[in-house]
Design goal:
With 241 residues, this protein is an alpha/beta fold. The chain is 37% helix and 19% strand. The chain has a three-stranded parallel sheet, sandwiched between helices.
Length: 241
Amino acid sequence: ASKLTQDGAKVEVVMTESATKFIAPLTLRNITGRPVVTDMFELASEFSVEHVALAEAADVVAIAPATANVIAKLAAGIADDMLTCVVLATKAPVIVAPAMNVNMFQNSITQDNLAKLKARGVTIVEPGYGRLASGEMGLGRLAEVEEIIGTIKQVLGRSGDLAGKHIVVTAGGTQEAIDPVRHIGNRSSGKMGYAVAEAARDRGAEVKLITAPTSLPEPAGMEITHIETAIQMKEAVAKAT
C-alpha cells in the first residue's frame, strides 16, 4: 500500500476482520490517506450502502496476502464480507498473492481452488520459499513487494500503447572466462536495461529480458533469460527475435 501510494496510485484498502487483528486500520489509513473499509454495514463509510461502487471504481483488485480461507471463498463464489463482495462485483482484473503455511498451500484443496481462480482469469503471484510464521521452512511466504507491484503494473498495462508488441531487451555486462575463477567483464550494472524492460511491460508489451549477471532483483511479468558470455547473448537474442 505504501509503495503504490508513493508511485501515485489511489489505493483503497479493504480489510477482513482477521486482517485487523494483525494491523490496525488506522495505520493503512495514514499510509494511503484514504478511509479503510472494514465493515459492509458501517454507515460512516462512503462505500457502505452500495459496495459495488468500490468494485466499479477499481482498475485492479490485489489481495495481498491472500489466505487459504479467502482463496477458498473466492473459488466458491462466497461473498460474506466486504472483500469477497468487491471481488465478486468487480469487472476489474484480480490479482491474488497467496501466503500461508506450506502444508496449507500444498494441500490439494488449496491447489484446486487456485486452479479454479486461474481458469477464471485471476492472476496468481506465486509465493516464495523461506521461513514461515510457524517457524518452518517451505513454500508459502508472501511474494516480495517488488514482484507484486510489478505484476500489478503488468496487468494495468495490458491496454497500453505497446499492447501486442514483442520487445527484446538486453542488460548487464557479459563475462568471458579466463579460468574457473577469473573472468574479463565490464562495470555495466544492468539498471538501464532493466528500467527499459519494466517501462515496456508497464505499457503493455510482451517483454523478453536477456540479462548478464547483475545484482538487481528479477522484474515480474516478463520472460527472463540469464546468460554469461557474449556468444550466449548473441544466441539468446537470435532465438528471441
